[in-house]
Protein: MFS transporter
Organism: Streptomyces musisoli
Amino acid sequence: MMGLMASEETRIVETRTAMSPTERGRAAETSASGTTPGAGRTRAWATRLVVAGIVLSAVNLRPAITSLGALLEEVRDGLGMSGSVAGVLTSVPPLCFAVFGVTAPRLARRFGPAAVVCAGMAAITAGLLIRPYVGNTAGFLAASALALMGIAVSNVLMPVIVKRWFPDRVGSMTGLYSMALALGTSLAAAVTVPVTDALGGSWQSGLAVWAAVAAVAVLPWLPLVRDRGTRAARPQEPVRGAAEQQAPLRMTRSRTAWALAVFFGLQATAAYITMGWMPQIFRDAGVPAGTAGVLLAVTMVMGVPLAFVIPRVATRLPHQGPIVLALGACGLAGYAGLYFAPAGGAWAWALLLGVSNCAFPLALTMVGMRARSGPGVAQLSAFAQSTGYLLSIPGPLLVGVLYQQSGGWGLPIALMAALMVPQMAVGFLAGRDRTVEDEATR
């Protein structure tokens, strides 16, 4: 963190040094005449609230999914679900992300990104609190959809908020956000089973406890709900020309947008299959339930350091394709291990798949790099995530069907490995140094 602060200070000093004495004088006059000490303090506190909101929100973007994965067998027994219905349940997250994520830019324009994320955190809280106690599969799915709706809009708007408030620190802030997301994901996977046991063995209580964690994430956004994205509220965003702010972008005309959307979809497919089914793969191989949850946590916790490092490295490279290929190779190795020796090398496979899952923070970083403006990032984020999650819907469902029909994990794991090859190909294309503004406005 000290290194990050030092690098930012160095950039500020270099920028000031590059200015002529006249320009520095004008900048000082503008600062003195246009910014009061009180306003400066207000902006500083607003920035701190945004950082806290980003971190706390990111922590709550996956426990709704990984906590369920750790207790999927108990939930299936409690609600009388078949394997196919459980496959539908694991497909609900990408479906909700596709359906609701596309509405995020419109909601943000009307109410402001902070207000939408605040409402999203409230929806997550309500959904997680309600779903364990509805008593039937339909109600469980509906309450899960409410929580996932909040996750969907927050997913799309996190890169927008990072670009708007920290335009010169996209890599660092995306890394911080991704690291917090990985921490929340792994924490839910690791402690859900022990917490359930401590609460008397009730899977309802084990799932509902995460509503309290989500409620905390509402608080930092409350003072910011009136922010409509004005210049005063976000002093770090550079002034842009009217043409750049208003030019409509047709994302369907951009090859980069399509490559990023397909890459996002394939990595989401792998991630949600992993989060939804990997504990069951280990349990069916003879691994105890508690250990299977810890293995999923190991997979998720790999994203904590790597999700901070990978975005910073990616922003320094002209082409992010080599990172895509390295992550894909780890995924192929992990799937091969699950196929041939799921229990014998369980810890190694969990580590490799954890590295492979860091395609998610890389995809988020490329969303911020493949568009020049804040509105461009908002449109690209909505297009890539909504289209990507729509493409990812069949994956977890198909895994559930193959598992039930074949009676084993050979075919599902072969499917996961096969999908990794096109993920590497389109990710390599998405990593090229292009911007959607150049392609979508032609």
The chain has one domain: 45-228+248-440.
